[in-house]
Amino acid sequence: MTEKLIKVSVPTRIRNNFLAGLIICAPIAITLWLTWSIVHWADSWVRPYIPARYDPENYLNFAVPGTGLVIAMIFITLIGFLAKNLIGQSIVRLGESLVNRVPLVRTIYKSVKQIFETVLKEQGTSFKKVGLIEYPSPGLWSMVFISTDAKGEIASKFNAMGQDMVAVFLPPTPVPTAGFLVFVPREKITILDMSPEDGAKLLISGGLVSPEYRQELIAAKGLPKPIPMDSLT
């Protein structure tokens, strides 16, 4: 009986050790692989346009990965600096006016530009808070990313009905990039203290990776109180 238990426990220990090592090694390996792939992708796009006299590989006996990526970052930074000047703004407006005259290209350009402006805008308020709403039925709670107050025609329709609505993004698990845009009454949203990054981790992991909670709030029971009316403005 003892020998049988020993034979069962040894494979179990080996499996547990393997899984523990996989948890440590897999994120490191994937991070290194993604970083290396991005560096090589940037080099493959930029290096062909680098003049030979400025290419460090012409003076060294070994390859220098990342040269294209560094040059691309410098170039993009310079473009951003020039675009803030009056002359640069005029050139950008002229280029956009030319692009807007091409039917298919202008649609793609406007869509891509709007996405980048929404994601990278420093003063934006998109997805800076995480909340809970009762969905898909009362008593069941789903995590949402709070976007902004209802605006434009939608806000006008809701205001006519006497409702103060907030736009939230309801993502699925484990791919939070897809989901639903839902307009929810402000008083029915329960704010959470976790950051959007922690919320994304919780969703991607299917609830297995839970963010740390402040010690002074651990004793609190139940869900946080509904958010105030002016906390999302």
UniProtKB/TrEMBL annotation:
Name of the protein: Transmembrane protein
Keywords, ordered alphabetically: Membrane, Transmembrane, Transmembrane helix
Domain of life: Bacteria
Species per Swiss-Prot/TrEMBL record: Rhizobium freirei PRF 81
Sequence intervals crossing the membrane: 20-42, 62-83
InterPro entries for the chain: COV1-like (IPR007462)
